[in-house]
Amino acid sequence: MKIKNVVCSAGRTGFFFDDQKAIKENAKLDGSSYVGNPVTPGFSKIRQAGESISVMFILEDGQVAYGDCAAVQYSGAAGRDPLFLAKDFIPIIESEIKDLLVGKEFNEFKGLAEMLDNYKTKSGKVLHTAIRYGITQAALDYVAKSQKKLMAQVIAKEYGLQVSNTIIPIFSQSGDDRYNNVDKMILKSSNVLPHALINNVEEKLGKNGEKLAEYLKWLTKRVGDLRANDSYKPILHIDVYGTMSTAFNDDNEKIADYIASLETLAKPFHLRIEGPVDVGNKDDQIVALADIRAKLEKRGSKVEIVADEWCNTLQDVIDFTDAKAGHMAQVKTPDLGGINNSIEAIIYCKKNNMGAYLGGTCNETERSAQICANIAMATTPTQTLAKPGMGVDEGFMIMYNEMNRILALKDVL
């Protein structure tokens, strides 16, 4: 089926763009905003409204296939592409990508996605990761609509996989409302929780880690108090955004000791710590996470370390996996550009004994989340993120419902 036209519309995301460096440097939260000046290039404020672009392929039979271009909350940080503003990038899609597609017919997702993901502009640059993310979503929807199949079925067929017979464990994120939102997660039986957004030493981790320790004590008790029965045992997954680097002066022995102490507080639940350190570059980050993993295993600890910062591309995921830099890698979908890269990353992690977390960001849209639910059901990662937003209910609903739709339809289509 030919693509008749390509149309773009500007949109909002489910959260905000935040200047991570300014926040780490102790910018103060003021309601839903931050007080202070931005320090990352491109930001006009420390927190500003998230933006997206819907890319819509008009098909010759009148159907519309679409995906949403979106970038992560902490754009411009840890080696990522710069701030993604719709007004800057719609002209690029309309002037270059449109001509690649209109009047043409494609029968395979993988080849089309790779072409779009590798495209270089007239100036010789690869497209912003957010554009690659959205246009390959639209490409998947286009092939699925052309073949009258689910997007998960298209992925499974082309990559030699099987669509899952159960939904993938959902990881809910709390944002800064890390107490009230936990209650929502427990009541909805979220499989993994709460993320907690520990992105500042002074206010959230504690100079010696004491504030996170107190929070973890509360969290463990809260799950025990609110759960319907003892069979509900969520995994406790805390993202600390590299703050342990600052608190413990990059001393991996002290960091490992501290993480091991958190494991005791988390019992009887399994604990994952995401991004314990951020040492400022990819190579040293790999060394640090591999060292912390080894030190924890030497101590007999079962805590899993999750790689996030500096693990942005498909090649990054491969490199972290090969070096055993952590026990799990977050496949942060917008950072990988084309969704074909996220698919390949999950497959690589699973083949090489690395936990696979199909993540992303609160700063996406309902459409990118739905398409990621299809990716999750086709690739069966260890867990997938409830997104977008930080309100729990909406992101959990979108991912849970989309995966259950796939379950209901996969054997009748």
CATH topology (level 3) name of the largest domain: TIM Barrel
Distance between the termini: 19 Å
How would you name the CATH homologous superfamily of the largest domain? Enolase-like C-terminal domain
Level-2 CATH architecture of the largest domain: Alpha-Beta Barrel
Can you tell me the CATH class of the largest domain?
A: Alpha Beta
**Rg for CA atoms:** 21 Å
Portion of residues within helices: 40-55%
Report the total helices: 15
Strand content: 15-25%
Major sheet, described briefly?
Answer: 8 strands, parallel
Q: What would the principal axes of the Cα set say about the shape?
A: globular
Number of domains: 2
Low-confidence stretches: none
Task: Describe the overall structure.
This protein is of the alpha/beta class. Helix content is 43%, strand content 17%. Strands 6-13-12-11-10-9-8-7 form an 8-stranded parallel β-sheet. A 3-stranded antiparallel β-sheet has the order 1-4-5. A two-stranded antiparallel sheet has the order 2-3. The chain has 2 domains: 3-159, Enolase-like, domain 1 (2-Layer Sandwich); 170-409, TIM Barrel, CATH 3.20.20.120. The mean pLDDT is 96. The chain has helices at residues 20-24, 86-101, 109-118, 129-147, 151-159, 180-187, 201-205, 210-226, 243-247, 252-266, 282-298, 314-322, 339-351, 366-379, 393-409, and strands at residues 3-18, 28-30, 33-35, 47-59, 64-69, 170-171, 192-195, 235-239, 271-274, 304-307, 328-331, 355-358, 383-385. The relative contact order is 0.14. It contains 15 helices and 13 strands. α3 runs antiparallel to α4 and α14 (366-379) crosses α15 (393-409).
